[in-house]
Every structure is written in C-alpha cells, then in structure tokens.
Amino acid sequence: MSSPAERIARGALRVCTGLSLGALTAFAELVFVVLTAPALITPVTRRWVFASARRLAEVERARVARFLGNENSGDYDDGRAWRYLAVRCVVGGLGAGVLVLIVLGVITGAIMLGQLLSGEAVGGGDDPRWYDPLTVTLGGTLLSFLAVQGLLGVAALDRAVAHRFLGPSDKERLRRRVRELATTRAEVVEAVNAERRRIERDLHDGVQQSLVALGMLLGRARRASDAARVDELVRQAHEQSRQALNELREVTWRVYPIALETGGLGVALESLAERSTVPTTLCYELSERPDAATETVAYFVVSEAVTNALKHSGCARIEIRVSRTETMIIVQITDDGVGGADPAGAGLSGLARRVAAADGGFAVDSPLDGPTVVRAELPCA
C-alpha cells in the first residue's frame, strides 16, 4: 500500500508527463491546422483533412485519458476533430510556455542556491546581503505556488477542451436519452409482467392451496356423523381459514401495502421491519414525505432486498437506512449473511429495472462471507 505522498508524487508526475507530451504535439497540430485550413474549401480535400484530423484527435484523446484521467467518447464527427485541434494547439502552447518558465525558474533557483551556499551575493555583487536567504526562500515559495497553479490550470483547460469537442454533441446526447428511455420502458414492462407472474404464483401455491384444504375440511365435516369429529374438523377448518387470511394478507402487502398510502414510507417500513423473522433495525432520516412514485419504488427496494436476505443469505440481522441529500433519496439495506448475491438474479435485476425507470441508480455489493449491501439512489424534488 503506497503512502499518500507517493500517490501525490505519482499523480503529479503523470500530469506533468501528459502536459509535456501535449506541448510537443501542440506544435505539430498548429502546423497541421495552418496548412490544412485552405484545403477545407473544397469537399474532396475536406474529407481527407477531416480524416487526418480525426487520427490526430484520437492521439490527443488517448493522451488526455491516460495522463489527465479524463475519458471522452469517440463518437464525435470529423469536423469537430479539426476544430478541437485548432483550439488544442493554443492550449498546448500555453502549457509549453508554463513548462519552459518552470524549467527556467528551477535553473535560476539552483544558481541562487549555489550562490547562497558558497557565500556569494545572490544575483551578483561584492558582498552578500543579510536578506538574501529570506528573499530566495519567499520568492521560491511564491514562484513554486504559481508554477503548480499554472500546471493545474493548463491541465483543467486541456480536459475542458477535450470534453467540449470530443464528448457527445447535444444531438447525440438526445439520441442516447431516447435509447435509454426506450430500454427503460421495455424493462419496466418486463418487470411488471414478472411481478404479475410472481403474484399469480403466490396465489396459486399459497392462498389457493389453503382454500382447497379449507374446502376439503368443511366437506369432511359435513359428511361426519360423530359430533366430536365434526367439532375437530371445524376447528381445523378455522385454523386453515386463518392461515389463508394470513397468506392473502402477505400477498396484498407485497402488491401494495395500505400503510404506504395512509402513513407514508416510514410507517410502511416500520411494519415491514416488524414482520421480519430476524432482528431488523430501521434508521429513517427523512423529515418530509417524498412523492408517491418515489415512496413506492423505495418501499419495494427495501421489501425485495429484505425478502432476498431472509430467503438466501442466512443472516442474523438486517439494517435498513433511508436518508436524503439535496437531490437524491438514499435507500440502503445491509445484512450480515453469507454474501455472494447475484445482481443478475430475478429479484435484484427486477429492482434495478424499477429503479432505472425512476432515473435512479442501483448497486449491489455482496462479497463472499458478506456483508451484502443493496443501495438505491432515487431522484427527488
């Protein structure tokens, strides 16, 4: 594990290397822009110029990603590549100027330091002055600060120019958004269909079987002639009816809990925690109720995550936390189970689609041996 000082030094070296390479390529780009600008007049030569500009822009895109840590997409058109080079050569020239000044400053500082150590007057003269060490120290500190700020400024400008020209255009962003919405719509439809199938399965395997058993008990009670036997069968039928009602209540809670509508998300989650078969703690930090759609998504994220934990993780404890930032509601469920949850599984992937439909973010962190953390971020007004 490297120390913070080593990481800072490596980062500074990487940025300086990137700016140095950018300063060198800036001169080649300046020559290219000046020589090819007249060729943009005719369509035939323009295609060749734009194709060459794209190759140079790809070199710059790789440099910015590798040394300045700024990834940009490669879906820009060739015309934007040429315009990028026209602006980039100016930024690269600025970076070259800053680097040259730093080199000159280092050489000058070394000369002054040598004069101080040898007892000579700094900058020439007969006798050294008492304030020479103070002047060199303060001046060197100030110039070092300005040099660092200059490098950071050029690096930020380099990233901004690359993002402006090499990132997706407004039209491309709109196309991507349309594709995302179309994908999200299809995923929501699939999630709804999967939810319907689950409800049908719960009714068939749970409530329906209990009602069938109840009908059989009542039928046996009608046919029985012994009073004691009839009482026993009626008692069993009563117990079976209570079980059927409990199973039906569980199904309706999973469909849409009435507490969510009447009491809000906090009350619904309290009820969910109380019905859990393992100790479940709830930390609810929202001072105001979110909108109904956000409440519904947040509730089902918690409900499905808790259900998965109870079924598969073997956990002994579950923690539910609901908090809020300025623009997002954060829902996090943590269990101390065996871990290894599969985000591509039916339950968690359905949650991811539901959260994506609300323009939210969804993540699952479940290493082997746990703990498992399910986190959803939902936008709020």
From TrEMBL:
Q: List, alphabetically, the InterPro entries matched.
A: HATPase_C_sf, HATPase_dom, Sensor_HK_TwoCompSys, Sig_transdc_His_kin_sub3_dim/P
This protein's GO cellular component annotations are: membrane
Please give the name of this protein. Answer: histidine kinase
Q: Keywords in alphabetical order, please.
A: ATP-binding, Kinase, Membrane, Nucleotide-binding, Phosphoprotein, Transferase, Transmembrane, Transmembrane helix, Two-component regulatory system
**Which residue numbers delimit the Signal transduction histidine kinase subgroup 3 dimerisation and phosphoacceptor domain?**
195-257
Top-level EC class: transferase
Report the EC number(s), separated by commas if there are several: 2.7.13.3
The species is Saccharomonospora cyanea NA-134
Kindly give the SUPFAM superfamilies that the UniProt entry links to this protein: ATPase domain of HSP90 chaperone/DNA topoisomerase II/histidine kinase
- TM ranges: 20-41, 90-114, 134-157
From the UniProt annotation, give the residues forming the signal peptide: none
A GO MF annotation of the entry reads:
ATP binding
The residue ranges of the Histidine kinase/HSP90-like ATPase domain are 299-342
Q: Which reaction does it catalyse?
A: ATP + protein L-histidine = ADP + protein N-phospho-L-histidine
